[in-house]
Design a protein that fits this description.
Strand content of chain A: under 5%
Largest sheet of chain A: 3 strands, mixed
Radius of gyration of chain A: 23 Å
Oligomer: homodimer
Shape of chain A: globular
Number of helices of chain A: 20
Largest interface: A-B, 39 and 39 residues
Strand order of the largest sheet of chain A: 1-3-2
Distance between the termini of chain A: 69 Å
Order of helices and strands of chain A: HHHHHHHHHEEEHHHHHHHHHHH
Chain lengths: 498, 498
Amino acid sequence: MELNEALAKLAELQRKLYAYQAASSSLYLDGTTVAPKDTAEGRGVALGILAGERHKLFSAPEVGELLDFLWARKDELEHPVRRQVEELRRSYAQLTRIPADEYMEYAMLTNEASDVWHRAKEKSDFELFRPVLEKLVAFNIKFAGYYDSTKAPYDALLNEYERGVDMKYLDGFFATLRERIVPLIHAIGEKEQIDDSFLWRPYPVEAQRKFSDYLMEVLGLDRAHCTIGETEHPYTLEFNNKDVRITTNYDEGNVSFSMFSVIHEGGHAKYELGISDDLQYTCLAGGVSMGVHESQSRFYENLIGRSLPFIQAIFPKMREFFPEQLGGVTAEQFYRAVNKAQPSLIRTEADELTYCLHVMVRYEIEKQLIGGTLAVKDVPATWNRLYKEYLGVDVPDDKRGCLQDSHWSGGSFGYFPSYALGSAYGAQMLRNMEQDIDVWGPVSKGDLSQVSNWLREKVHQYGGLMEPADVVKNACGDFDPTVFADYLEKKYSELYGL
Amino acid sequence: MELNEALAKLAELQRKLYAYQAASSSLYLDGTTVAPKDTAEGRGVALGILAGERHKLFSAPEVGELLDFLWARKDELEHPVRRQVEELRRSYAQLTRIPADEYMEYAMLTNEASDVWHRAKEKSDFELFRPVLEKLVAFNIKFAGYYDSTKAPYDALLNEYERGVDMKYLDGFFATLRERIVPLIHAIGEKEQIDDSFLWRPYPVEAQRKFSDYLMEVLGLDRAHCTIGETEHPYTLEFNNKDVRITTNYDEGNVSFSMFSVIHEGGHAKYELGISDDLQYTCLAGGVSMGVHESQSRFYENLIGRSLPFIQAIFPKMREFFPEQLGGVTAEQFYRAVNKAQPSLIRTEADELTYCLHVMVRYEIEKQLIGGTLAVKDVPATWNRLYKEYLGVDVPDDKRGCLQDSHWSGGSFGYFPSYALGSAYGAQMLRNMEQDIDVWGPVSKGDLSQVSNWLREKVHQYGGLMEPADVVKNACGDFDPTVFADYLEKKYSELYGL
């Protein structure tokens, strides 16, 4: 085989993988937005077959041979191509280590589990979910060995979501956070509570939709390349760097849920839209890791979106959308309301300060589940004990407890820490951004272009060209969780006059 | 190979073809409904690759061997399976007779042509479209030889859209129609024109949307399996018999365009939703031909939708949606307005009577183009001459002339006659339905269930199990175009007091 021929095959392989991904994404998007209610079965058949075809395509021996051939000549490859081969070799090795029958069995299990979880959550019935969760945990322990048998199983899983991260790293990270956050929460508990009652008024969905359009404009999201839809759970879905979709969910009785979900998903979308054209239709075309992705979404949502300058910039316009609801409210009151810190039960509704504690509960449980020191049947009791210990709240039922998240039913163990890591990466990026440019002057005028440009240049454009840790390091130096802790301490001390 | 093994492979092949079709449909649906404006390129890449993968899958030599193996043992196969093998052998032979490079070149050409046609139509500039149209015609003449070299090229193309139909058949059919329709049109021209001015008032889109929902309810379309969307050109898209989508386009200045497009597409949807479960995920799962499909859409649109009993049934409710616009209008006036016969320029806006003349113009041109007796450069002049001759109207520009339809740019030559055939099949089905059941009693009460049941039993359920001509024959005996002519003559004589 000639090198040029091999490179052409490499490009073709990646374009095919892109096409299968686009097909599955399109069916998923349809299923969660406009598809008629009782149509899941036929879509499931198509999705299953496409996943099988993709698996067959990518796990073929010729692919292994092609990648080996190219790797043997890696010194002749340009950097992006070399990186593609490196990434594809890693995925190929992982995929081919999982026996095909186990792969298919697992795909069917997660499909079923999602259904069972939905029903179990609705009925708040953990026992219904328990048998599938047991199977999912067993599969993940086994798969961890396929991923990397030299690592502890949970370390191998963590590495899948954020390469280079392990329990030792996270134990230190979370210990630092707990040490700094818990005293803050206690101190805030002694203070007068912030009034956020005006967030909980009737906000008509039609006006909220227009407000979303406005927010997307402020975020600088080009509607010719990014639309917004409505789904039960908000998400971002990328086809390529010219075609990204975000979704939200409107709560007629609260204005901030959708507002910050739009800004959050908008941050994910900015990342995908900012990835370099050169990487399109290759395996490097998406965001590099869950942690880095969350750093972008939470950057826009919290560091910018929940800042006083940003709220001041958008509040006059916001009052035009909701003149009755916000008539007597000032920008500063609104800023304080959306930053009210209060230990609570639901992760996705948690404030910026207590959020990481929700993640820590899940981290502790996953560590023990995958480590084999916690039986699935004991998850609810452990969950409830940890919520009491970390957040001081009593969990009334499993629906608002260990059944609240979809991740485990989707087979994701080791994903949750990415949320906390992303928040910490973001705080560090902000520190460096502030050293490089005037962040708050333009933001207080509603101009996010400088912020966006900095993030595009330092983070977005690279896609998967670098390792996640290197992307972070490139943007803001060595990872240091105290920067995030300092940020929280400063913000909440000011808010609550500590 | 064992027979059981071969049957399993046959089922697997068809499920894969279904999955590729579902993927492409989903991307197409997305692209025409909710996708951001500037995202066609990335979707095109995915669609092209998926088409290529589907082609590779289906044209593989093993598929030919499998089908030959099964055909050799056809006497042992159950009827539906035997029919699947027969159909797949036909498609396989056709696909493999087209050289792969020509197939790909043609796919790229139609992709480009659609774009060029859009621009040419916008500018009313035939010269812009001419070079691609020349290529499209040349390709179709060549492909006709691959389809069936024993037939005249246009016969081979016609056979693709409506198996068993050829020029001899259509010449007779259209001659009968012309002979009967043209005198009717002349007679109507001498009469006082029907007042349809109230159709052309401002009808707010939001109210039209609600009216569409109501129409779907009357049609008996289960919204859990069929939704309605909005696109530039209305269409029906089926994933399977549990998942069908229709679209419409609202014109703020006219109520009947969207009304009858919803009923028309609803007729297509009824067909797809009525196909037997046993045929799902096989090549027999869709409607059997374009002609039979149009027989269903035009049955609901014209024979039912434009009938007096139907209008009388829905009109009270319709006036609730449009109290100001239809306040002083009676059901009978509305019935007369939506049946106003008037030679015009645009096929898709034509009334039931003159519609077939629009089709005949296209048929004559296609016959000569593919037959090699008409040069592409002479299409506009021929078009304009035939419109004058058949319909008595002067074509002011190519935008409202030979550039109005998308079919040729999509590579479809031989499709148009299906519309007229469908209308004629429908009239014959109505005749037989009236012999079997009380059609108009229930319809006048807004109850279409008996009509739907008859069509499901006689037509829908069979999907592709029978040849198109046999489906028609099974439902209403030997094809006889005078039934359609009689129907038109009776309806329009009454309407205009001839």
